[in-house]
Queue: 3 jobs
Job 1
Amino acid sequence: MAEALAKSPPPPSPGQLAFVESPAYKWWVTWTMMLGAFLFALDTTIVNLAIPKIMTSLSADLNQIQWVLIVYMIGMAVVMPTVGWLSDLVGYKWLYTGSLALFTCSSALCGMAWSPHSLIVFRLLQGFGAGAIAPTSMAVIFRVFPPEQRGLALGINSLGWTFGPILGPMLGGYLTEMISWRMIFSINVPLGIIGVGMAVTIMAADLSDRRPRRLDLLGLGTMATWVVTLLLALSRGNIEGWNSQYILSLFGAAGSFLVLFLVVEIYVREPLIDLHLYRNPTYATATLVGGLLSFGLYSSGLLVTLFLQDFLEYTALQAATLMLPGVLLSGALSPLAGKLSDQLNPRLLLCFGFLTSAASTYWFALMDLRTEGATIVWAQVVRAGINFVFPPLHLLALRTLAREEVGAASGLLNITRQIAGMGGIALATVLLERWHYVHHLTGSEHLALSWGGVEPTQRALEGVLQSGGDAGGLLQIKVQAALSRYLTQESLAIAFQDTFIVVTLIFAAAAIASLCIPGGMGKKP
């Protein structure tokens, strides 16, 4: 089977050859990759707001519904490290096409799920399909574009990366509220069919060097085990308790298998992942910056969604309206950021993008219940500056690597970002809940400082309610309910502010780290 897949593809027809050699070919490939990147990024966030409807429709409990989210990440984590080996085996064209086809078919199955268990299985298949899409798209762009145009191409491709996570919560909430939760999966099908058709007809079959090698099964097993156990710990920690035996065991297993994986990859003849990639200081530092990016991006995305819909009580459609200007600006900035990456020092663009993200999250840290919608819109507009990060980061990370290293390196970069993103979500959730609890406990002190004591506040509320006709026991119940609601809102507002400050510091650290990425003037693929 491997030998059959590894055979050289048939030569292209004269018409195909003329198209591949035309200047327009590489741009058609970029748009093809962008569509896959959009679907990949969209499904990392679109499901979250549909969870309550899915639970009701499929009679699922909280434990089952958590697995709907977790197995998607697990599926991607298992596939991403194998991208280098798979591309050597079947070539980038058929790896991308097959992955997108699997993603599309499994999306259709998810939309037809009849039970929690069937949805979990179909989401795992969807994760398998998504795992190779992002790293393959970056590797293909590096193959078809000359070095002086890669920044612009990555900027266009990052439109998918940008729109996906931003539109995910809004689109998921809208489709769930207005149509059905099944539409959040079914919407992938027509786009996926178009993407597969474009990949089959546009992409050339000789986009990789096709040097089949043995699969490092021991490396794959240990890699998959430590990544899966780590993702499980990060996903379940807030539910099971971070000090629980289950979570501590998962972290211990993740650490043990990580060490075992490193030992295997050092001594095996044909490793799954060439750890020598990290000897390249440009790639190693860019990977660190990419981890900080995902850590801040995923955590801030979760916080903004919770702040708008749970705290300020906007509907999904209202939140989408407030975020729309920022989304539109993101679309305009991505190609510009890519073009500038080809002309300016990419590190400066990275620093600028992280600083605008830090400014946006700090702005959110200043908001409360009295915040107007216009302020949120402008904060989202500033947040669009994150688009100046994606093209230069990928450009810096991969441009000093040899041609045959780009596929494996892009897969490794993406799995690092996925793990960091899960860590960001876990940290944001833990800090928000912890600080909400702490500030609620000290709520009486806040009242005493801001109102001159609880009793005057209580008497003022009693006077207002008495003027409306309330009296006796009902009056006291309403007073206590009003005070409790006030304490809850104020403590939650402060918890949001504190957590946004932490994310601001993460983006600031990423801005500093981005300036430390080495020059990267070595060999180019």
Note: Residues 1-215 form a domain with the Growth Hormone; Chain: A; fold (CATH 1.20.1250.20).
Job 2
Amino acid sequence: MGIDAEALARVDDVMATAIADGALPGGVVLVAKDGAIVWRKAYGHRAVAPEPVAMTVDTVFDVASLTKVMATATSIMLLSQRGHLSLSAHVTGHIPQYGQAQKGSTRLEHLLTHTAGLRPGTPLKEYRRGTASAIEHICTLPIEDEVGTRFRYSDVGYVVLGGIVERVSGKPLDVYAREEIFGPLEMSHTTFKPPAAWRERIAPQNQRNGEWIIGDAHDPRAHRLGGVAGHAGLFSTADDVARFCQMILNEGRIPGTSKQLLTPAHVHAMIQIPAGATHGRGMGFDVDTVYSSPRGHVFPIGTSFGHTGFTGTSLWISPPDNMFVILLSNRLHPDGKGHVVGLRRKLATTIATSIRRKVLTGLDVLARDDFDLLAKQKVGVITNHTGRDSEGRSVVTLLHDAPDVALTAIFSPEHGYRGQADGEVSDARDEATGVPIFSLYGETRRPTSAMLAGIDTLVFDIQDIGTRFYTYITTMGYAMEAAAEHGIRFVVLDRPNPIGGLRPAGPLADADKLGFTAYHPLPVRHGMTIGELAGLFNTERKIGVDLHVVKVEDWRRGMLFDATGLTWVNPSPNMRSLDAAILYPGIGLLEMTNLSVGRGTERPFEQFGAPWIDGPALADALNELALPGVHFAATRFTPTASRYAGETCHGVEIKLTDRYAYAPARTGLAIARTLKKQYGEKWDHENVRRLLANDAAMHAWQQAATLDELVDTWADQLASFERVRKQYLLYD
């Protein structure tokens, strides 16, 4: 199935932690890929009060707002494809009185996408006399936004849609859905108003009027409507929800048959954001909104979709992976305080990263395409030991052996061609090919005219780590400038950002502090690939080089390096693990001071200390800050090189508890503030300025601003950068 079973089994840990933390009493997780269920397991208890009852995989759940897609939107699509209504028709064509209060322009598609301007809910008293009466009241309500202009998630719109299903079909929504959807899909344990015989299998919610809610809709409006509503009220099992998801993934085909329930066109309408829309909804499914937590960090943005339910249910479907994830829970039992937003995100990320992927680097793609981009070119390549394809072959070897390419020069960055040097590097010659190697970290850091003589195309292939002060990106910028000056084409063989490409973080470098560790006003963690940075540099810095980026294939912005299937090669001598690379944008801010950040040990950037630090006291102080994604433990170490070589250092090790939650600049400056408070003049805090490169942030942490106030000092400039950055992103 292309699944790493060991990685998928981490679902157990994710669920166990969430249950222990009180996020939910229990739940069922189901994962399907390539048409088969690959994970189906119950966790915890479906009831913990009045006495514990173990969760089972066939537990029946109140799926809450999954009703919207499983029953209501699908019913509307069936009626549309049978010619009984049009998705673009005005609501007044079915409910004439709906035209009151400036709602006359509302179409069915507006209700389906939550862009009808309706408020999220209406007073409970208006639902006591049934659906027809509730809709009469809704018709009189003024809209809160102009129709079609804003996404505002609304149960009210789906109450109206449920009423339209009944008016058009002549059958109540529950009957129509049972006969036309659940029956054909063989979803035998999916229904509104479950029978009493199911009671022992139904997961209870919290209490209503002193009684556990079991088999009755938890949603108060659906409850007042007799348990049947367009927005909530449906009950189902994980297996039944899976049959529905597989039908959607099959583009409407009923699983195990050749019969279509929905046409592909109607499925596409449900799952795709309409052309020109500014919201993130299909006509039923969530695609990219604030409610998209079940997507996690790895499933693709824009081409995967799903839905959530208030009771702790969710589904997420990823056609590019031929996969879906279902979480069913009764997170409101017993006291209404459960919370599963974070759990949904962690589950999806864990499951998505279990897929065995074959990410292709730009070098892989170039070689696969027979080096056509470089045909009949005299080529220079800027690279080091990281410039290898997925089979471990060097870019230098591949270019040298390519039949229609003339490799004439190699250029090496900081740490040299072999990636092992500390300090300046001299020119050399490659022993294997005889091609000269020009150092860009020696007498010059820019390619000179003599170095570039005779070169038609300059190729860049180095693994970056996603941090502003990691100097490989500056080497690229300088080389782009030199190539532009000499009329040389510049080709970037792109590589994944190993620490992910979702969220830039930290302050931007001030314009007057640019240099070799800050080529451009980037945030501390830039969230871009080397190819994306090249595009940004070329335009924003007006370099004007003839730039070509050979894109990575099958990499997604949320993927960390260990999800790519590529082999980790230490990008520099002290960058020895992915965790170190993730921590580096924060811990690296401290390395110009009189601390050891672990250089000369086996775990650089995963620990820091000094002979004069009290490790346990520092660890306690840092843990009291509750910094997201990290935990600190006292340690001691003796570096064999770099600062404090041969001396015992006391300090802390940093354990990543959530690699996506970690906030590097917040963490680094919180550590700085704590060190300054505890050690005063013993610690050379002024040198934080050298890599922070931002006066406002430097001033704020030195003045003991709160962490939130500190982050506020760069919030506006970071938001501005994200708007610029968006123009240059090459991947979803």
Note: The mean pLDDT is 96.
Job 3
Amino acid sequence: MTGDRQLTALEIARQATLRPVSAIAEAIGITPDLLQPYGEFVAKIKLGAISALADRPKARYVVVTAVTPTPLGEGKTTTTLGLAQGMAHIGQRATAAIRQSSMGPTFGIKGGAAGGGYSQAAPFEALNLHLTGDIHAVTAAHNTLSAMLDNHLYQGNALGLDSHNLTWRRALDVNDRALRNIVTGLGTRQDGVPRQSGFDITAASEVMAVLALSTSLQDMRQRLGKIIVGFTADHEAVTAEQVRAAGAMTVIMRDAIMPNLLQTLENTPVLVHAGPFGNIAHGNSSVIADMIGIHTGNYLITEAGFGADMGAERFFNIKCRVSGLVPDAAVIVTTVRALKAHSGNHRIVAGRPLPPALLAENPDEVRTGGSNLRKQIENVAIHGVTPVVAINAFPEDFESEYDAIRDIARSMGVRCAVTTNFRDGGAGATELAEAVVEAANEPSNFRFLYPTEAPLRTKIETIATDIYGAEGVDYSPAASRMLDLFETSGLGDLPMCIAKTHLSISSDPALKGAPTGWRLPVREVRASAGAGFIYAICGDMRTMPGLSLHPAAEHIDIDENGDVVGLS
């Protein structure tokens, strides 16, 4: 605190005493020859670390997920980093693995993704602004493919692409609604073939999903080649390999495939790598980071995007299939105010003051909204993974409201802990760390939700009914045609990623808690053949965010000393 003012995350980060990244690496068994330093406190880890560490014992593998998020944010990254710090306070060695933040949301309304309070990854500015340039590499690789595709059309379209059935757009790491739908090729004949297109934010690029799911440089090269850019008039898929762009894309991504090593404010190792969108992609950090991190201590703690119905389900059924790693426990982050929001009694808008009624003591309202927590506990347990409920504490909470959450956890037969790591750092997460250690050392019974050989419709319906609580699925004629096409094209064995709102377990963001009696509408189905999954689109997914009336960018600047101010 400074007087009565709470320190900002940036101010707290600047007070921390960081260790040289070489010392952080040495502590986890990574030798200097496996590091590519970016200044004193950031380094990339060369892929040779995978084989160099292979003979070391495997850590217990813990995924951090949450209840269905609200516009308030439930502190999942903060809890992930606080838990990793808390492990050191109880004599355990942990490494955290998180996604890299996108600068679009950083300059928009969400802010950065370094955690918060005294549970942050550092250096704060580096993490939230460019880091080692991975996102820019993804942007460049994506747009190289876009340029090669348009050049192929201009040069005669030897592959017979249907200009009205091109699926590859452009990417930019900026929130800019004006770029969602554009027309390219305007001007003279030498300026290209006019066609309708648009931009997605880089985190939504399939190249980002490929980066997150690759297991080696050669694997990434093959995946990039499989990216589908469009279809011929006969509905034959055309790939990046066919337009001869995959090699150049791989060269651009050659350094980006190496995970980044940072540290928490308490010098706990943090692997930061990849940041695929949680709505239309799998929303998890990279497989390669976990392949390295699993051999660096007693516990590897990774984070999955959004609620357990989305990020955790995809972690289990997409990421774990690729990595071959088996999770030992899952932390489900919740807050009192999130469960009150899931009661349906409050209207919450990001960036606006909280409704006063939300802050009043009301354990009964917590119990009502607790239906969401119950369902997310079930969504973890159905995969044979032991859940632990983490109550992320806020000063406005009441002990009676914590008791209401504890009662829910007790009735479900799972552990529950209150964590104050935002305020107290690792010392505030020791209760949670002890609960996670107990859970992670129970016998594992991990299982996938569906077999890969199941038909695509079966996969969709299993996720919809077992995870979302829907009573069934309705397919549009276009979605049905594409499902049939993918089955006959040899893509039927790919796992399923359902693109839907993150603000409800259902496909309707207005439905709170754990709604029942609804049906999942699948309006479109697409193939991310490079990433290695099929995704079903259920609702209107915005892949290029816009800016608010007063975005964070208005307040970010430099001071008279050239230091960054206003970054959050």
Note: The chain is about 35% helix and 20% strand.
